[in-house]
Amino acid sequence: MSPSAQPRAGSRQIVRLALPALVVLAAEPLYVLVDTAVVGHLGSIPLGAVAVGGTVMSIAAWFGALMAYGTTGRAARRFGAGDRPAAVAEGVQASWLALGLGVILAVLGLTLAGPLAHALAGNPQTADAAAGWLRIAALGGPGLLLAAAGNGWMRGVQDTRRPLFIVLGANVLSAVLCPVLVFSAGLGLTGSAIANVTAQSIGGALFLLALVRETRQLRPVPSVILGQVVLGRDLLIRGAAFQACFLSATAVASRFGIAAVGAHQIALQLWFFAALALDAVAIAAQSLVGAALGAGDADQARDVARRVTIAGGVAAIGFAALVALGAPVIPGWFTDDQAVIDQTAIVWPWFIALLPFAGVVYALDGVLIGAGDVAYLRVTTILAALLGFLPMIWLAYAFDLGLGGVWAGLALFIAARLLATVSRWRSPRWTVVGATR
C-alpha cells in the first residue's frame, strides 16, 4: 500500500481499532477473575498463594505491555510509509526480543520462586504453595511476551481481528481448562498454574504462527532489536515512576488506618479499571498516528490526535458519570464495613473530578507513543512524580490530611502530565515524519 492509499482516519476508524483493543485488554483481567474464583474454593492458603504468585507474574505482564506499545508505534510508521513487509519485520525482531526476555524471566521464576514467595507471603504455608504455583506459571513467560509482540505489530498494521480471536480463544480455553484441572482432575493449585501456562503458550504460538505466515525473513537483526530495547527502556523507566507513585500512595493511605487503606484500594482498583478501558483509545492513537507520520502526513497525525483526545475525554466523562451515579452502591459491592464505606465518601469526589482529565492524558500518551516521542513522556512523567505526586502524599502523611491529601497528590500528578502532554501536542516537535524517527 502506498502512502497515498492510506485511508483518512476518522472517528469510525478510531472506534474500529479501539473496540477490539478493549476486548483484548479486558480478556486477561477477566480470566484472572475466573482463576481467582476457582482457586478461592480450595481455601484461603491456595487463594493467598495465587495472589502472591500472580503479583510476581504481573512483572512479566508489565514487560509485555511495554513491548506491545513500543512495537505498535514502530510498525505503524513502516505501515504508514507503505512498507508492510518492514512493519512485519518489526514484529519479527520484537518476537526475538520477546523470546529472549521470556526465557530469562522463566529461568528467574524457576530459580527464585522460593525466595520471592517467602519474601511476599505472610506465612510459610502460603509461601510454599505460592512457590510451587510460580515454578509452573513461570514457564508461560515466553508465550506471554510473544503474544505481546504479536499484538504490537498487528496493531501497527491495523489488523484488529486476529489478535481478538487469538487472545479470546486462548483465554476462553484456559477458563474452561482451569476448573477441569483443579477439581475434575484433582490437581488443585497445580491445575491453576497449568491452565495459565497453557493459555499463554497457545496464545504465543498462534501469534508466532501468524508471523511465519506473513514472512520468511525470520533472522534476528541486532540493530533493530537494539532500537526496540532503547524505546522499551524509556517506557520501562516511565512505568517505574507510575509504580513508585502508586505504591507510595498505598503506603501512606495505610498509615491512616485499615478503613482508609481499604477505601483507597477500592477507588484505586476502579481507577485502574478505567485506565484499562481508556487505554483502548490510546492504542488506536498509537496505530493511526504512527501510520500518518510514516506516510509523511503531519496534518493527518494532528487530526488523529485531536479526534482521539476528544474520544478519550468523552469516554472518561461517561465513566465519571457512571461512577457518580453509582456512588451510593458501588462501595458496597466491595465491602460491608461501614467505616470503609464512609472513607470512600472522601475519595469519590476526587475520583469523579479527575477522570475526564485523565482521559485526555491517556489519549495524548497514546498519540506521543505512536509518534515515538517516548523520551519526552519519560522525562515529564518522572518530573510529575518527583515534583507533584510524591511530595504531596508525604505532606498528607506529615500533616495528617487523610485520603483527601493522598488523592490531591494524584490530582497534581494528573495536572502536571496534562500540562506536559497538551503543550507537546500543541507544538510541532512530535510530528516527525518518515518511516523511522
Describe this protein's structure:
α3 packs parallel to α8 and α9 runs parallel beside α12. The longest helix is centred in the N-terminal third of the chain and has 37 residues, at 44-80. The protein has 2 domains: 3-220, no CATH class; 235-426, no CATH class. It is globular and about 60 Å long. It is 85% helix and 0% strand. By secondary structure, it is mostly helical. It is built from 14 helices and no strands. Mean pLDDT is 89; it is low at 1-6. The chain starts with 10 loop residues before the first helix and ends in an 11-residue tail after the last helix.
Task: Find the count of extended strands (DSSP E, 2+ residues).
Answer: 0
**What value does the average pLDDT take?**
89
| Strand portion | under 5%
Order of helices and strands: HHHHHHHHHHHHHH
What is the helical fraction, as a range of percent? over 70%
Domain count: the total is 2
Rounded to an integer, what's the Rg over CA atoms?
Answer: 22 Å
Per the principal axes of the C-alpha atoms, what is the gross shape?
Answer: globular
Major β-sheet, in short? none
Structural class estimated from helices and strands: mainly alpha
GO molecular function, one term: xenobiotic transmembrane transporter activity
Organism: Actinoplanes cyaneus
Subcellular location: Cell membrane
Keywords: Cell membrane, Membrane, Transmembrane, Transmembrane helix, Transport
